[in-house]
Design goal:
Elements lengths: L2 H12 L20 H11 L4 H10 L17 H13 L2 H14 L6 H24 L9
Helix pairs in contact: 4-6
């Protein structure tokens, strides 16, 4: 252990503990990698964060677990890709905006065909929403 490490450990051991609120953590540690080293780390880490991967490699099973993300990872990347592809290829938001403008100005003719088209569009938007929720690991019909 270097002198700097011992000094840091002494300071951290004698630092006052916060009375309430979130605990204070030591400052982050920075390390520089060559482009090749970083590419190797990125290839080996898979879907893990780089910091979690490095911590796991350094400490193995002794690594202190971190808090889980509030918004969990994508459960079904393929389904998410399909939904985002459909949304990206559509003009859904622009078309919905045009419909809303026509309704507000009173220039949307309400015929049985128009009503059927709007109901079908609503069903398609609902199906996209359900696919997106499933891809994110949420149950359709549950809260936000």
């Amino acid at each position: 252990m270097s002198i700097l490490d011992r000094s840091f450990n002494d300071i951290a051991a004698h630092a006052p503990k916060p009375e309430r609120g979130r605990p204070k953590y030591p400052p982050p540690f920075s390390i520089r990698f060559t482009f090749e080293e970083r590419a190797q780390l990125d290839a080996e880490r898979g879907r893990q964060t780089l910091s979690a991967y490095i911590r796991e490699r350094l400490f193995g099973e002794d690594a202190t677990p971190r808090k889980k993300r509030v918004n969990g990872p994508v459960q079904d990347a393929e389904a998410l890709g399909r939904v985002l592809g459909v949304l990206g290829g559509s003009r859904l938001s622009a078309n919905l905006n045009q419909l809303a403008k026509a309704v507000n100005t009173g220039s949307l003719p309400v015929t049985p065909e128009t009503e059927a088209d709007l109901q079908e569009a609503c069903r398609e938007v609902k199906a996209l929403r359900e696919d997106l929720l499933r891809a994110l690991g949420k149950q359709p019909g549950s809260g936000p």
